[in-house]
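LAB NOTEBOOK - FOLDING QUEUE
OPERATOR: T.R.
BATCH SIZE: 2
PURPOSE: Compare the predicted structure-token outputs for two unrelated chains run back to back under identical settings.
PRIORITY: normal
REVIEWER: second-year student, initials M.K.

ITEM 1
FIELD SEQUENCE / FIELD STRUCTURE:
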Amino acid sequence: MWRGLRRCFSVVKGEETSFNELLGKELGQGVEEYSKALEFVKENQYFSAETEFRKCLEILESNKLYGEPSYNFILLRLALMLRAQNKLTQTEKIMEEIVSNYKAREKQYPEQLCSSYENLLKQYLVTSVDKAIMLGHFLMREENWKILQRHTQKDVKFLLGTAYALRGDTLSEAKEYFTECLKMNPGPNTCFVLHNLACTQWWHVLKYKNSDPNALGEETEEFRQATVDFSEAIPNLQKAIQLFEDKNELYTPNLGNLDLKNKLSGLSITNIAEIHFQSANLEVS
């Protein structure tokens, strides 16, 4: 069931600066290893690509470019190659290194620092949910929050909510952050936020599936709120599908085949089906 949560989503950003532009044309054209790495990526030979990217880093270091945007550019691509090989611990360390590099040059590269924080937060959702929560709250400190771009602030709210949902025992907190993100108007990413909010609303009520409402004690209020929120789960999934598919009308499960074009919608439909299936076993007052 937990795989039904969306951990990351697309964020519309400007075009990325090319490696040659970052390095300068003369030096950039001289780094043949970068071109070799790209060819290996196209062929899905990730270990070979990793090797070439590491050679690129050695060349950049020898030119005293450690920590500069060109160096971090290659570091990020190395991290992606490691992730593709499921070398998640190494991936995490490199993402942390990129953040550290830009933090040391915060005034020069504020936008890159924001982006590196967001990439690290997404990586922590895979490798350590607790680290994701710690980083999310660190970024929400007043002195850090004010330097983040508006779209990054929205993403932090979404990713922090996702981290709380993945932890499993902090579903109320997860719903709060998803709701806050929606209030900030996440634009084209609204469908992802609605999807994860709906999943969390569903999982929260499942927590009390085998509980006696009259014997909950201090959790009585949480149970009541969970049951109220659960009534919004399917409508939120319906709206998520509508936005995924760019439909004029709200998706309804009994309409049959809507000629869905976006594979992302399939997961939302599966979640709706599971909620309907399990609702027969839930006594929600």
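ITEM 2
FIELD SEQUENCE / FIELD STRUCTURE:
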Amino acid sequence: MHEMILEKIIKDYKNGDSLKKLKTKYDYSIGNLYYHLNKRSLMRKNNIIKFLKNNDQLSIGILIGIWMGDGSKFKDKWSYVIKIHLDKRDTLLINFIKNILLIVFGKTCRVVLEEESNRGIMIMNSKFIYDFIDKYTAYKENKTLTIKLKRNINQYNNDFIRGVMVGLTLSDGYIKDRFVFNTISKRLASNVYNIFKKYSYNPAISHQPRKKYGWYDLQRVSLNKKETLLFRSVINDILTKYGSSYTIDSLKRYA
């Protein structure tokens, strides 16, 4: 196998392509592909998940919130691929997410760091996790535009909802002097707004038209400075459960 072709195969495999997809794309046998990938210790281990290791609602909520903000998933024939897209410089956040994956599923993930950019991708292959996400979320073909929680927020466990807010803050939230959450999903903005109202905050919600630029309109949910301080304290109290090094400033690389 030519080295340049092998480099492309390795890159595609790390990004989630199955051996069957690589066979079709590059016209090499599955046995040949397996040999070269296994020789470099790159073959994915099965480690099939059939049930939750821990039904901790707070941890589940954090994972769902992060995925709603920064995640994607797709089927590749019989392979089920789940991804979380982030900045490769977010090393502490990557470790934090790995830790929660271990708590909930007893499984970690592969991490692909792009050399030519700051993009990083956390990749899991699991039908169980793929279906598990759909128990909590609803979306159409354009996930980012339509994502929301599947049920009314009052139907969820309080720990789960608190976890979701931590996850969303870690993904698409800004929380320094004021909390600001931006999304193109009206339904997700409504979720965030209603969660804050449920816990007696006074959020503001606004709409920023962007069609003239060829972009989807932006929905923004925000808190004033006083309530942002309170919310930061709540988040940091939650994060201490997972280790003393985890604070919202460290995970967002503010500090």
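REVIEWER COMMENT (ITEM 2): The radius of gyration is 20 Å.
FOLLOW-UP: none requested
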